[in-house]
């Protein structure tokens, strides 16, 4: 009999989707601790690449077709203890909306200056660095 530990849970892939000077954020129906607003994200399925999971989750949650542009980084999330990967994605098609009404309450396109209102504890440094460049251009 094996016990499942947090280390054996699948990693979480997050999509960092920038469009017209804003980044896509979603609010889950059930908060994960202090995490209320976050990026479209979900578990990496067996055999799935992290970047592919970020693309799939964006489609499932927000109805957007995106492609992975760059893997920004990976860490164990300080609030959830889950392995997180962050992938910059660009939109190929669709209009952002709450596609997964069971998981999401709402979504927002957030400016660089408004991110602290949505994520008061700060972002993972490689994600913040990417957004500093992408949203101030």
UniProtKB/TrEMBL annotation:
Matching Gene3D superfamilies: Nucleoside Triphosphate Pyrophosphohydrolase
Record key words, sorted: Hydrolase
Domain of life, source organism: Bacteria
Nudix hydrolase domain residues: 7-132
GO molecular function annotations of the record: hydrolase activity
Keyword Cell wall biogenesis/degradation on entry: no
Keyword Cytoplasm recorded: no
InterPro entries to which the protein is assigned, alphabetical: Nudix_hydrolase (IPR020476), NUDIX_hydrolase-like_dom_sf (IPR015797), NUDIX_hydrolase_CS (IPR020084), NUDIX_hydrolase_dom (IPR000086)
Reported cofactor(s): Mg(2+)
Family: Belongs to the Nudix hydrolase family.
UniProt protein name: NUDIX hydrolase
The organism of origin for this protein: Streptomyces filamentosus
